[in-house]
Amino acid sequence: MHKTPDTKGKLVVISGPSGVGKSTIVRRVIARLEDTYLSISATTRPKSASEQNGKDYWFISRDEFEAKIQRGEFLEYAEVFGNYYGTPGEKVEAQLREGKNVILEIDVQGGVQVKQKRPDAVMVFILPPDEKALEERITGRGRDDEKTAQKRLSLAKEEIKTGRENYEHFVTNDKLEDAVNEVVGIINR
C-alpha cells in the first residue's frame, strides 16, 4: 500500500509471554514492511558497554523519567526491578504523523495502557502453540533455575489471560514464517 504524506501510520502493539518469539517476529516484520519502525523505549537502568543511546534504549536519569511521567509524556511505562521503562509518546507520534507504522514490542500491562490512550492501536498478541511448548521454551533456555522458570511460566499464563481479555488479534507462533506472514497481514489490513 503506497502512503501519501498526509496518511497517518498505524500504531501496532505486539505482546506475548516470555519465550514466545516476539523479538524474532518483530525483527522479520520490520525487515519486510517499508516505513515500519520499532519504537525505542526509555529506561533508567544503566547502559551496558555494548548498548548505544538512541539505538537500544534512550538512557535517562530517574529524575528526568519521573518528570516525563508527571508531564504525561509516556504512552506507557512501568517500573521493573527498580528501573523505569517507558515508550516516549512524542517520538512515536512524530513517526505516525509522517505516515510510518510504529511497532511497540511491550508487555501486556504496557499494551493495556497504550490501548487506553490510543484505542486505534492495532493490538497483536503472540501465543505459543500450546502450554507444553511454552513450558519447553521457558525451561529450555537454560537461563533460569527451576524456581525462576516456574515463576516465568506462571507469569506467562497470567499474561496470556490478560492478552485474551484486551487484544484483538492473536497469532500462534508454531511455524515462524507463518506467524510473520500473519502479523504482516494484520498490519497491512
In short:
Helix content is 44%, strand content 21%. By secondary structure, the chain is an alpha/beta fold. The longest helix is centred in the last third of the chain and has 21 residues, at 146-166.
CATH fold category name: Rossmann fold
What gap, in angstroms, lies between the N and C termini?
Answer: 10 Å
Helix content: 40-55%
Strand content: 15-25%
Mean residue pLDDT: 91
Strand order of the largest sheet: 2-7-1-8-9
Low-confidence stretches: 1-6
- Elements, N to C (H/E): EHEEEHEEHEHEHHEH
- What is the helix tally? 7
Number of strands: 9
The CATH homology group name: P-loop containing nucleotide triphosphate hydrolases
Work out the count of structural domains. 1
Structural category? alpha/beta
CATH architecture: 3-Layer(aba) Sandwich
CATH class: Alpha Beta
Rounded to an integer in angstroms, the radius of gyration calculated over CA atoms is 17 Å
The major beta sheet can be summarized as: 5 strands, parallel
Molecular shape: globular
Notes on the protein architecture:
With 189 residues, this protein is α/β, with parallel strands linked by helices. It has 7 helices and 9 strands; from the N terminus they run βαβββαββαβαβααβα. It has a 5-stranded parallel β-sheet, with helices on both faces. Strands 4-3-6-5 form a 4-stranded mixed β-sheet. A hairpin with a 2-residue loop joins strand 5 and strand 6. Helix 1 packs across helix 7, helix 4 runs parallel beside helix 6 and helix 5 crosses helix 6.
